[in-house]
Amino acid sequence: IGFCLNRPSCSIMAKSKGENKEKGKVKRVMTCGKKRKAIAVAICRETAVRNGRGLVKVDGRPAHLVQPECLRPKMMEPFLVLGKQGNLDIRVKTRGGGAVGQLYAARQAVAKSVIAFVQKYHEESTKIEMKDQLLAYDRQLLVADPRRCEPKKFGGHGARARRTKSYR
Description:
The chain is α+β, with helices and mostly antiparallel strands. The protein has five helices and five strands.
């Protein structure tokens, strides 16, 4: 349903609707993390209305229920290093790779999303401090690991292994 240009009251209503959208504007940032074949995309958001709740969900599950259980502390490392989670809601979607690769990719995506959110909506100096803290703790939190599986070649059993040469 559009508004009529002939009636001035309609155009005023349209302006007021636009103003309401500005008040309820959502602050959000989207980042990705990679580990081997796994890719994770994190959406970090803070709404002006409810100010976020501090949720971290990975594939629809809360971060404290992530599998494998022995790597759960790894998932929360960005917040442990920075000392606060704040009022940010972070949702992570993962695909590809195995369970451990997905967890490391999600961990990297979460750390990068917090840094990107601070850079976009807060002070640059705060972002630099947070980034230095994360890099000092573990560089893998912000920088992707470039190593990939090397493909198998012909004439052997694997990427580098060759068949044993027999002379007799």
